[in-house]
Amino acid sequence: MSKQYQFKLVLLGESAVGKSSLVLRFVKDQFDDYRESTIGAAFLTQTVNLDDGSTVKFEIWDTAGQERYKSLAPMYYRNANCAVVVYDITQPSSLEKARTWIRELQRQADPSIVITLCGNKSDLAARRQVTQEEAQKYAEEEGLMWGETSAKTGEGVADIFTTLAKKLPQTAPPPSSRGARGTRGGAPASGGRAGVDLNKSGNVIGTGPDGCNC
Amino acid sequence: MSADTEIRSLLRPSERVIASLRASASASDDKSRSNQNVNEVALAVIAHVDSGDRHDGLERGSVIVLDSVSLNPQSVTPKKLRIISATPITSELTISIAQGMTQGLFVLTLQVTTSSESRSRSAHETTRTFTTSDSHALSEFTSACRRFQSQAPNEDSFAWLASYAAMTTATSAYDVPPTVEPQSRHPQTHRTLPIAVPVNSLPLHECLSSAAAGQPGDEDKDIAMIKEDWVRRTLDVECAGDKTTIRIRIGSFNVNGKYPSQDLHPWLRKPSSPQLPNAMSGGKETASVYTAKIGDAIQGEPDLFVLGFQELDLAPESLLYSTSAAAARVDAWTAAIFAGLGELRDEYQKIAIHQLVGMLIIILAKKSIIPRISQIRTASLGTGLMGIMGNKGAVGLRLVVSSTSLTFVNSHLAAADEMLARRNSDFHDLERRLVFPGELREDSESHDGMGYERSSIGGDYDYDADMVASGDLNYRIDLPDADVRALLSSPNLHLRELGVRDMVLHDQLKNVIKEGQSFKGFLEGDITHLPTYRFATGLSTDALGYDMKWVLSRHTSFGSSLSRSVIRRRPAWTDRVLWMSRHPSQVNILAYAAHSEITMSDHRPLAATFEVKINDVDKLKQAEMAATLFEKIGNIEDAEATHKLKLASSTIDLGAVSFRRPVMKQMELQNIGKIASTFRFVPMRPRGPIHAPWLSITPLAGLILPGETMSIIITAFIDERTAAPLNMNPNRLDETLILHTARGKDHFVSVTGQYQPTCFANSLSWLVRLHEPIRSTKREVESHSKQLLNAPKEIMRLVNWLMSHATNIPGLFITRADEGLVDNIRDALDTGNEISAEEKLSDPHVAIAVGETLLRFLDSLTTPVVPASIHARCMEATSRDEAFEILDQFPEESVNVWISITAFLHFVLQQDAHASKNVNEDTDQSTRANIIAAVFAPILLRDDAAKAPRVSPLAKRKFLLYFIT
């Protein structure tokens, strides 16, 4: 029997590591060489179909990486089921920043949050400054998932999100029995208590195809 | 076992019994009446206490009906109660009480109207009637019901009733499905407007759903509202009709059951009346103002007279049925009105009248305007005895002039001082339940003959609408009786004006409006007239004619007396005229006054004259245009559409921002998507502020068509209220605004600027650390400096300047100062520049501005010179010596300020005394001193808004007088 899941995902990481490009590749399979810096938080959705027939819908908040907006980040990772923390393999400082984000998430986000560490710009391997071993070791120590991607070529992008999609239904708390799902209608990420609870519990939102028209 | 105990035994622990009532049930509308089908039942109001998952803290109420059954038909007793129905108390439940056929018997009718969707025309109604002779229990029962109704619960709050519904018998004619789909009404809520009036003066963004960064809120609802707002605004511009101005005279008069025995001319025609018919010593100025305004009034005769009466008939039987005597009273007052119009009487015609018991509203229209008037409708609602009787409540008339809808509501709210909460709840009752026929309300689809047609697109955007709420609202003044009388009794005009100002600060209605407890969004003209209540004749009156009698407190509940006490009804502005408009700038109040010549009642009549802009729009064209506009917007709600708004810049630099000098910046927001998009600014956290209090954003929400650009105006303005926190942590202004695109991105906008600190809105304890002018102060240095000044140098500079140049300036501290001069003087204090140029030293305008600056400076202090904590002690002083002793308890930094200022005032008053010895002036020296004390006392001994009780304004003046005379 196929199931549908819905999870809130937040992207975090230093400015210019390629968070928005990663999302653009994932959601629209596009790449833009001259992307403007994100000043704000963009909201996108993408659905991943798994082999067992179930689908996972991600509600993605792509946040601004700039330091001056750091105080706003908690508003976006609040109630997130998963976080993708991105660094740039050519910038060691960006991994440091990623560690800071991960520490903050471990301290302040929902305790059940699933975190993936993502080394972007793998197409620039010639200028690599962060080794795969270093990042992988850190991820293992902290119990994170890890992968490298290139938003430019598309390499590894689908893997990162698919792996998350597979892992989430296993780790997320069992679907809540609250009858709130009917209230969501066609409103992605609608606020209010029902929406928040739903996000928090990583609900199963339907049991058949088109069970949800979100 | 008492009934209550027995009922309680049937309830779960999460419910409790609020009120219960024994009654006989009779089936109302079937043929079984003849069958003697009357059985004894118990009714109870039960309350459910929510456990946890709802956080609004409100209790939900339900009416349950129980009957008695014998477990064993053979035995006579005991019978057991069982629940036969359970009904949620919502706005769908109508409770009414009538006098029964038999003396002492009351008929209680409970009516439930269910219409879960506005689409379903066939509203389902269930009615049950009961009779009882227990008026006391009945009163408690109905008041409990009304309390729950006033809390306006959501329909989804009654899941807890399900278990009781399951207990009820299926045969009951009366059970209502206790669970209601949570979303059934949701999208329509914003169209339910106050007092069923198509006026909603709340700004758009206050009507939107609660949203925050990362939490977009209810986007469907928000988009719908922003769309509608956009269409309305666009119609205002694109489809503007001819605008004309009409004049409306609103009157309110509680006639205390009297017949007209005096000429009503002053009430109907005069802009104001002399305030003191007996003591006219301050009357010189009054008279001149008065004649100037008279001229004005004669130029413009009102196009409409809207006259509201209360207590037309006090006879008890008038509550129950209309008497011929009541009709005679209406005729008598109508005749008196026409008589009062004098030579104008033939120009007017009575066009509408509506009465409920003692409340009457009459509209007279000038004959020339009558052809423009249409769609007159009436409404009334009783909120009096037992919550429904017409001794209190409201009557309303609504009419359309050209295409502008005007609503007039004449109310009479609960009386007595201590009934403040009841007055507020009366208002909320009116707000919800006073419905004009033809309104689009989910629960009433009825249209009467004159019911107006709404545009098929829905909403009421095509109306320019204004509303006036007047009447005996019965709000009082929260000051002791002796204070009110003393503040009013001064024969000096200035002093009395200051007294009125002090009293207005303590007026209950002004305060509940400010706090949003009732009449939210309503405006009122400045009160400059004396209280309109309660006058008496004979011996037990004060000099102004206000009643001095001691009476038993009326604070009793129906049938039983609570703590009765002896009180005096102190004067109050019970009678008021308030208004609300969709376009507040189109309503202009010209006069607002009480008319003390008319003395036949214990109230004085009140009148207000307005100028109202009337729109004349082609409705058909407007509806067509609205349809076109909605079409043009397209389907924003489409979940698949992508919304792209682009900000020209994500940073706004305000540059240098000074106190009270506005800085405006513009930001361009462009729709680069393919579909119309809506946006709104959201706070960082739910229910938090959208922006710093010193910023304003116009608009806070809006709609942009594809390809179009909108300019959003950001204004920084730092005033006394907002400067204090900035002074604490000065220099850098740094804010992040969050602009949310519906179904899209949150944009962040950084607003930065350099704050130029001011000496205003600081604390004395901080100012005495500053040796240099505040603009040249390095904060870090000063905060460590140990050497404190005796008093803030700014105060010393102002006082010294006044001492040298302004000891003999008439009007100092009284005459209004030139704002530009005040700004310059404040800058001089902040920068250390000279207060005034050499050649201006003798200019009295400069002196008056320096005086004004001193007052405003003192008023802006974050803690008053005399902190509120020692006010009570100051009031204990009964002699000059005692007053001076209290100085020991002042904070160190306050003592010198107090001494400098009072010494200066003392000196000025001495000078005055010498000067006026030779000249016979109007105002004697003690009056001068009293005026100065009345100006300074509320500032030097400012109340702490957060802390009660507040000290009497008179006692403050008295304390200050010990120092300055």
Automatic annotation (TrEMBL), chain A:
GO terms for biological process: protein transport; vesicle organization; vesicle-mediated transport. Keywords: Cell membrane, GTP-binding, Lipoprotein, Membrane, Nucleotide-binding, Prenylation, Protein transport, Transport. GO terms for molecular function: GTP binding; GTPase activity. This is Ras-domain-containing protein. GO terms for cellular component: endosome; plasma membrane. It is found in: Cell membrane. PROSITE patterns: ARF, RAB, RAS, RHO. It is a lipid-anchor.
TrEMBL record, chain B:
It is found in: Cytoplasmic vesicle, Phagosome membrane; Early endosome membrane. Keywords: Cytoplasmic vesicle, Endosome. Gene3D superfamilies: Endonuclease/exonuclease/phosphatase, Immunoglobulins, Rho GTPase activation protein. Pfam families: Exo_endo_phos2, OCRL-like_ASH, RhoGAP. GO terms for cellular component: early endosome membrane. PROSITE patterns: RHOGAP. This is DNase I-like protein. The lineage of its organism: Eukaryota, Fungi, Dikarya, Basidiomycota, Agaricomycotina.
